[in-house]
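Backbone-to-sequence.
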């Protein structure tokens, strides 16, 4: 009879994704996939939308942008194996974007993720990574000893970014960051992914930003956060600290009308609305669409959890 240790060791022994040559990025014609894992805005869990996260897949490698609550389960619902993760990008250090940063990597390791994972984001990303490893040291050591897993300590390599510019480039994607304005949360970034077949920009959280407009120039897809201002009073009335939250929403986010203006100025082909505030059902898809198209004549997609584009 197979022992538990033998069974788990066998589960970890599956082959890694194939290696690529250094010039594969220029030669490949692989079709990229963009999946909206979670489209809700704000830290409170919602029954209608998961927390903010998206993933871009090229040649079977997954590049995750933001890690809101439940991101690992959203990847499972999207039939994306956690061991396919190659890099993780955090736009800014708000809990609805980073709450499951460590959990995603930890659960990926438990699912058989064997390769190094490079992570990118604003400070204090390195400290966050180290503290997460310390917090879960007991479980990690037990699994290494009992199940024969490889060490996890050096598998995650965090890279802190503080300015515009090239973030990373590999055989699948070129990733560029631009500073955006998210009120007191500084630095905050948008990311552009230039894939073999198209360009995809993720806004992160921001008010209307010229940095984002420059980053998104001519992009095929812009995924942009969105606020429906007429519904804001009802939203904040139900939560503590309402006056402060309302002021933050108006000062540090982008209304649906202004999202359309940003998309037009950047000259993008497709605008995808996401990170909805409010994230419930009080605003219909048609209302989101009507507000955004006032100032943008291109294709507009009202995002949904697990939607693939």
């Amino acid at each position: 009879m197979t022992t538990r240790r033998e069974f788990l060791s066998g589960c970890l022994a599956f082959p890694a994704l194939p290696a690529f040559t250094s010039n594969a990025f220029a030669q490949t014609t692989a079709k990229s996939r963009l999946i909206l894992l979670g489209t809700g805005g704000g830290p409170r869990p919602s029954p209608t939308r998961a927390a903010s996260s998206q993933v871009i897949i090229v040649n079977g490698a997954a590049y995750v942008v933001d890690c809101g609550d439940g991101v690992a389960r959203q990847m499972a619902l999207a039939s994306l194996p956690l061991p396919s993760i190659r890099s993780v990008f955090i736009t800014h250090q708000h809990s609805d974007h980073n709450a499951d940063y460590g959990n995603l990597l930890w659960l990926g390791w438990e699912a058989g993720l064997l390769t190094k994972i490079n992570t990118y984001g604003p400070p204090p990303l390195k400290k966050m990574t180290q503290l997460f490893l310390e917090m879960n040291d007991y479980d990690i050591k037990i699994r290494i000893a009992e199940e024969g897993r490889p060490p996890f300590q050096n598998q995650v390599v965090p890279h802190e970014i503080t300015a515009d510019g090239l973030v990373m480039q590999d055989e699948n994607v070129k990733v560029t960051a631009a500073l955006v304005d998210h009120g007191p949360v500084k630095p905050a970034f948008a990311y552009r992914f230039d894939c073999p077949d198209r360009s995809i920009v993720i806004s992160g959280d921001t008010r209307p930003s010229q940095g984002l407009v420059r980053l998104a120039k001519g992009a095929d897809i812009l995924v942009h956060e969105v606020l429906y201002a007429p519904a804001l009073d009802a939203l904040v009335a139900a939560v503590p600290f309402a006056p402060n939250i309302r002021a933050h929403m108006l000062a540090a986010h982008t209304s649906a009308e202004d999202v359309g203006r940003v998309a037009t100025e950047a000259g993008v082909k497709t605008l995808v609305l996401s990170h909805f505030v409010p994230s419930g059902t009080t605003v219909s898809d048609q209302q989101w669409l009507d507000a955004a198209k006032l100032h943008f004549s291109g294709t507009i997609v009202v995002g949904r959890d697990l939607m693939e584009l």
